[in-house]
Please model this.
Amino acid sequence: MQLSPFPSFSTAERAPTLASAPYPGPVFTPHPLPVVYSTLAPQALIPWTMSHYDIPIPQACRLWHRGLSDIYLLETATENYILRISHHHWRTASDINFELELLTFLAQRQLPVAAPLTTQEGKLAVPIQALEGCRYATLFPQAPGTVAIGDLNISQSWLLGEIVANIHTVAQSFHTQAKRQPLSLAHLLDESLTSLAAFWPLAQAEWQSLREICIRIKHQLQALPTEPPYWGICWGDPHSGNVHFTDSNQPTLFDFDQCGYGWRAFDVAKFLQVATQTGLSRQVREAFLKGYQAVSPLTSLELVCLPSLTQAAYLWSWAIQVNNLKLQDCSRLDYHYFAKRLERLRYLACPDLALF
Model:
């Protein structure tokens, strides 16, 4: 006898039809289901912000951007502010304190960064108990100016390189009790591979190709010393999208939530990685390096390692994006997504590629 895959009912216990069944009303479970990511209502954040910060009354609050954190734009009659709400899965309290203390330190030394505002109680970040757990809110003044129209020109790229070098130099005297995961080979490569492996849809041969690229990167970068001046505080994400320029070409840098201790040359490589990906000309990429070198010359060993650091920066960024997408849009993590990015990494690993 062939068994039906559907349950059967006797006449007496036959399941009611949609037409005959009374609407039971909303069903509430005794214990709410777990939440991995929630969106805080913009209007609710206006009184919340006013209760913690001494700023003019906001006329509007908008969810401006959803990235590694949720960015809200607070508009007042006199100036605008950026309210950043961390994601529960992205940064710990120690990670956030490290970043905010660094920004405050740099701003106090006249470096052009968007430093956090302190609360009425003198805090740099405020915990918010969201459905998924603790998140942290930080308020910044909106950086004056805009992202460079048409991307960076040569003079802006040179200037940005100078500022990054100055950050590395000044930050050598930065000290904090907050802990931050260093931008080590284990973090940039090994942990990134683990993140990618969980969703890898390509053939084993492609995975082996990726591993071989990582082995070559490790082999070269193991020669870099992990001590000053090679090693120190890094911005972690220098690129044209994270700096505003005014009409008079005055820059303000922001988005330091990937900062940490690492090789100073990594920041140069991260700029080159994003610049090649977005199509910045070789002259503009070269201007950044020249601006950096004018303040803090890199050694010949660091210059030789820049291609491998650029590949490591790409792999790390790729893994960060995968970890973010798995909570928001797994549909994008398909064959074409991984194939395209592996092709991009192979391009960066090509020995004929001229970064500068």
Observations:
- The CA atoms of residues 51 and 99 lie 24 Å apart.
